[in-house]
Amino acid sequence: MISIIAKCQVKPETVNELKKLALDLVAVSRKEEGNISYNFYAEISDSSRFTFIEEWKDQEAIDIHMKTAHFQDFGAKAGPLFAGPLDIALYNKLS
Amino acid sequence: MISIIAKCQVKPETVNELKKLALDLVAVSRKEEGNISYNFYAEISDSSRFTFIEEWKDQEAIDIHMKTAHFQDFGAKAGPLFAGPLDIALYNKLS
């Protein structure tokens, strides 16, 4: 299993649009064969900051995900909303 | 429910010590009445970076956690191992 934390910040006026795009992405991504979990969070102290926490069976599942129409569609539509680069890291669970 | 992501970086020579302290903290913290989940991760691309992902019933549960002997003991022992300040954020789950 590989876990991903992807943090992003959006322009304040685009928060609602990002939320909709993100929740649509979550719903479809959860149906992918290699997905274990896929969740979306709003940072409490900053309403323009959000985080995805995802769990995938392996790197192949992640590679497949990144080639899906829904992921690429999200990237195309959400890209202009971001206020800067995403902070993405992959993890092995130790506990 | 409140989720917490706490990212840290340790001095390379202290990685094993941090892992032990962190896994001990996870085991005890999971038994707290207000805890929903508590997990510890190693960043794949950097062996000195780690992340906790925690879920708590509410802010009161977090406040209680931070006053526990096991949390304060972790802070005292792990503090000197960190290579810089932790990156901690609290979240509401939207998905």
Automatic annotation (TrEMBL), chains A, B:
It holds the Pfam family ABM. Keywords: Monooxygenase, Oxidoreductase. GO terms for molecular function: monooxygenase activity. It comes from the Archaea. Residues 2-91 form the ABM domain. Gene3D superfamilies: 3.30.70.100. PANTHER family: ABM DOMAIN-CONTAINING PROTEIN, QUINOL MONOOXYGENASE YGIN-RELATED. This is Antibiotic biosynthesis monooxygenase. The lineage of its organism: Archaea, Methanobacteriati, Methanobacteriota, Stenosarchaea group, Methanomicrobia.
